[in-house]
Write a structure and sequence with these properties.
263 residues, four-stranded mixed β-sheet, single chain, 8 helices, seven-stranded mixed β-sheet, alpha/beta, 32% helix
Length: 263
Amino acid sequence: MKVSLIIATYNWVEALDLVLKSVQNQSELPDEILIADDGSKEPTRELINTWKEKSKVPIVHVWQEDKGFRLAEVRNKAIAKAKYEYIIQIDGDVVLHKDFVKDHKRFAQKDCFITGSRVLLLEETTKKAFQNKKINFGIFTKGIKNRFNALRFPLFNSFFKPENSPIEKMGYRIRGCNMSFWRQDLLDVNGYDEDFVGWGREDTDIVFRLIKKGCYRKKVKLALIQFHLYHKENSKENLEANHQLMERALSSDSYRVKNGIIK
């Protein structure tokens, strides 16, 4: 099984540098890295070009013009360019445990997609990470929240089966920064709905539609470990409009969107 790793980013060079460093440190590397760039300026391009020269695997820079928060659209562009059958999706502000890719591959299963959680680094811990170029964190690291999520014990998940429960009961706590899919499943639902503009709900929407298609959700704990770098919250001014779009997906009989990868 070959893997495409998609990293979403926007104008945060220091964070992306640490993320890419943690990707190169993986016990099992992805087969390619696609950086889904929602309109970053020249410093991000320069950093990516530097990493292209020293990366152990190919890096593809997928850039779109900055017209506001259009994460759904740039992720679709990266999915369309991905070469391989399995896609791991993260954000450009999460440092990966060395077995992150290995764990996603371990739990991959046909007709399933995977969701994971994250460990939150506090502001001071994040500052020190930037100063020291640190990518190694663990359950005993000072200045973290959600500490339990830093514990790695993959066998824990053998006690649980994938979920295909009524989608209304799943709630909205889907983390797009830690997910993986079969590329064909994403193409079948036509990817993300690009009507989502601004922060929020685009990840929940695609999960709902994948379940409608017949995919199962594997919610993995004590593995797929990532450490989220502290930053101020994004603007949520479009959240209500995006919530209404998500409700539309819930009430629709179709799992395929019109404004997706293929227009």
